[in-house]
Amino acid sequence: MKALAMLLAVCVPAPAAAAQYFELGPGVALESGDSWTEAGTNYHLYGVQACLRGTFYTDLSGHREDCGDASLAVVAAFIADTKPICTPVAKVANIVHVVCYASVGKAQVDLGNLMITSGYAFAALQPDGLPYWPAYAVAEQLARQNRAGLWRFDDVQHPAILLGRAAKERKAP
Question: Which of 20, 95, 129, 170 has the largest CB neighbor count within 10 A?
Answer without folding.
Answer: 95
